[in-house]
Amino acid sequence: MKVEKIRDLTLVSIDNQNKMVISCDSCGSIGLKSGDVFKVDPFYVGRFTARVALLEVLCSGANIVCITNAICNEMNPTGKQIIKGIKEELKLLDLDDVVLTGSTEENFITTSTGLGVTVIGIAKEDKIKVNNIDCSCILVSIGIPKVGNEIDLDNDIQIASYKTLDKLLNTQGILEIVPVGSKGIMYECEQLAINNGLNLQIYENSNIDLYKSAGPATVLVAAVKDNCLKDIKDIENLNVIGRLIKGEK
């Protein structure tokens, strides 16, 4: 069995045709408890923590089969609200029937909210979009980097949506897609270049902050073949930010 760690993904070869794709995310001190730094309903803690791990696996081209929640608080009321949020995020993906399992902390009283989420998916070996770039291509970002109270929790069209991701996954010429979180757009672009053995060129006139945290994956970065950019030009908040270049310095 071959196990690889690539970016925030763990890839496990199941057989010659299938790979297991695993991702996780954590969240701490965000909630309604006395020790929480950022006050927000635990429902959104569940939603957005799940979103980060779900996007990592979905961007690889995998189908979700299981999601786990490690809740570092009591089931009632915090855990119930977190689980409700996770289920709402799954509902947005039409994944109501995906296995959701987890654990809560019932032995001790907690003063800060904590959550860990793990998502497991299965991808076809010949369809997986990880380290899949074999030519020079365009880099685009989709969405606006946002974090904390900058995010409209229920209706923010500036956040890259699952509908947008679905369009990217079903557009020919999209070579690789990665969600952007706290490390910013530039970091993810650099990782794409390193992991694919390519050189990175960032355009100086980019009109988006490449270093700002994108919080709960409010931005996607996609590597696009030159002749396919026209097919995604209509996506909202799309910015052409640079290129990945093969065999040049």
Automatic annotation (TrEMBL):
Record-linked Gene3D superfamilies: PurM-like, N-terminal domain
KW Kinase (keyword) present: yes
Pfam family for this entry, one: AIRS
UniProt KW keywords: Kinase, Transferase
GO-annotated molecular function: kinase activity
PurM-like N-terminal domain boundaries: 10-122
Signal peptide: none
Protein name per UniProt: Alpha-ribazole kinase
Annotated organism of origin: Alkalithermobacter thermoalcaliphilus JW-YL-7 = DSM 7308
